[in-house]
Amino acid sequence: MLSSCIVGNGVSSGVLTDVKSDKLTAKFLTSAGTFNVQNITCGAKYCPSGVAITNAETLHINIIYKLMSILLGFTLIGIIIAFFMDPLPEETKINQTPQLKLCFSTIKNLKDPMILLLVPITIFNGMEQGFVYGEYTKAFVACSLGINMIGYSMICFGSAACFVSMFIGFIVKWSGTYALMIFGMFAHLSLMTWFLVWDTQAYPSHIFYIGAMCCGVTSSIWMSQTNAIYGIYFSNKQGAAFSIFRLFQSSGFTIAFVYGNILCVSTKIYILMVFLVVSIAMYSIVEFKYQKNHFKDVKVVKQEYDEKDMVAIL
């Protein structure tokens, strides 16, 4: 996913190189006609309008056709490669859960209190990615630097996320998942606070790429650790658990884009911050229950081994 983010945005950056790199402007429709507004407020103060048509939304049709043609080309290449791949082993096919059974299992496991407590952090996972793709690219990068700079900022986002993801496994061995999640919460809250007070006109262009990299660091924590949490906590029903994970992560994406053209960016940031704190609080309950049950299981196993050793001595 992250590698495709780098490659895809590299391609789009190449296509959009010739696009004029003006700051975001808009045409407001009124009864007297249209008039242009040059200095739209960028950053956290950016507010969408139902009657504004920005220059980021009026790309030349040839550029849109070119981008869609490249996307279609990559899709066809992927389909062709899939035909030449080795088929799945028979053993793997036998062990696969039927789709209908998996669907019913997913619905049944929605009643699990542990999964319900993890729903908020899963939805947040999708919402924060939706914020980066939908709000940071438009309200910060396109608004201040131009639409042709979006691809380069997202390359920085994907590169940072890939780089950090390679080391998260080693960090978790030393710190544990819960400590890393708490660190991620404070890091993300700090990042959102910076976005709230950031005067986008007072800083050079490279700061926007640093902001994208910071988003990549926090996203890598949420993406890797939420996957790990579902895999560890529900190891006996991973199929249904990851189906629920994808369901609510996609719901987070949907929520982020539904209110994307309604609320101001500052309001969206506050929503993310509050939702994150609530999500971590509910995840903490799950972590406490899991550690408590895990301690009991270890104690029982140790007691059984002690009894066997006693019998062997006798």
Description:
The protein is mainly alpha-helical and 314 residues long. 74% of the residues lie in helices and 4% in strands. The protein has helices at residues 2-15, 61-83, 90-95, 99-109, 113-144, 150-175, 177-197, 206-233, 238-258, 265-313; strands at 26-30, 33-37, 52-54. The chain has a three-stranded antiparallel β-sheet, with no helix packed on it. A hairpin with a 2-residue loop joins strand 1 and strand 2. Helix 7 packs antiparallel against helix 8. The radius of gyration is 24 Å and the shape is globular. The termini are far apart.
How are the strands ordered across the major sheet? 2-1-3
Strand content: under 5%
How do the SSEs run, as a string of H and E? HEEEHHHHHHHHH
Helix content: over 70%
